[in-house]
Amino acid sequence: MRKIIIDTDPGIDDAAALTIALNNLELKVEMLSTVAGNVNLDYTTENAKKILDFFEKDTPLAKGNSLPILREYEDASQFHGETGMNGFDFPESSRKLLPKHAAVEIKNRILAGEEKVTLVTIGPLTNVALLLSMYPEVKPKIEEIVIMGGSTIGGNTNTSAEFNIKVDPHAAQMVINSGLPITIFGLRVTTRALLTRTDIEKVKSLGRAGEMLYSLFTHYRGGDLDQAGLMMHDICTICYLLKPEIFKFQETQMEVAVEGPAAGTTVADLAGRYTAAKNVKLAVEIDQKQFRDWVLAEISQLK
Ligand code: RIB
Ligand code: CA
């Protein structure tokens, strides 16, 4: 079992990614941590509690940063609804959080274990940047950082910046230049990780988890259900851990613009024209049908 820690801002596509990760026997989710992103930190944390309650998991949960490191916080509630998981009536949660900030709790968890841990980030990178900055001693115990974020094909917040990176570009720049193995899924691939109306109708028939996800998906504005389909950005990170062969990658040097109108834009030297350095493994292709089939198979196996 691969040990992973997921930092998340649920968020409807986050909820789907967490659903698969928490229930797949090849993954050991050591803990979850929440960050302000799609919606504010209180909502993302309550949403993470509700997902853990829904699947009756005892996975530890830590609350992280309510604000980006330097920039003013902006949310994406227009895509996920005011609560971040509009569409399904989860019961209120009485789950207790780990006592300290996510960066401290992730550090404690990484240093306590014998084996290396993979960090999976499916929201802004604030918590992970703070972790690496405050506790660099964790780095030898991190196998890889798998990121949903960035774009080499234009933005989804403006013409150039993808949301997770735009919310906290300073954090993103710190993480991708940490020297750790970075695998990054940007919009070039995640906007092609699509579930169509036909797929969503199949999800509806896949047990209580399928009904819950169907309710969320019908309220998710990340794509057009009756055209190309809904973009399952965050699921790409989990799919990579379990079925990497459906993606193709290119190693490249990526930098993040941190100030001005281009803040949050990720720039990749894909032609290798400006430097021999390569700090990330960038996903460049996805087998769309295999992705769809895999998502439906994963959900169909849930209890
Ligand atoms: O740009 C897509 C990313 O922003 C996804 O992680 C989605 O959940 C939002 O956080
Ligand atoms: Ca997310």
TrEMBL record:
User: What CDD domains does the annotation carry?
Assistant: nuc_hydro_IU_UC_XIUA
Q: Which domain of life is it from?
A: Bacteria
One of the entry's Gene Ontology molecular-function terms is: purine nucleosidase activity
Q: Does the keyword RNA-binding apply?
A: no
Keyword list (alphabetical) reads: Glycosidase, Hydrolase
User: What are the GO BP annotations of this UniProt entry?
Assistant: purine nucleoside catabolic process
Q: Which GO terms describe its cellular component?
A: cytosol
InterPro entries per record: Inosine/uridine_hydrolase_dom, IUNH, Ribo_hydro-like
Q: Which Pfam families match?
A: IU_nuc_hydro
What positions belong to coiled-coil segments?
A: none
Which SUPFAM superfamilies does UniProt cross-reference here?
Nucleoside hydrolase (SSF53590)
List residues of the Inosine/uridine-preferring nucleoside hydrolase domain: 4-292
User: Could you tell me which Gene3D superfamilies the record lists for this protein?
Assistant: Ribonucleoside hydrolase-like (3.90.245.10)
Report the protein name in the record.
Non-specific riboncleoside hydrolase
Organism in which the protein naturally occurs: Halanaerobium saccharolyticum
Lineage of producing organism: Bacteria, Bacillati, Bacillota, Clostridia, Halanaerobiales
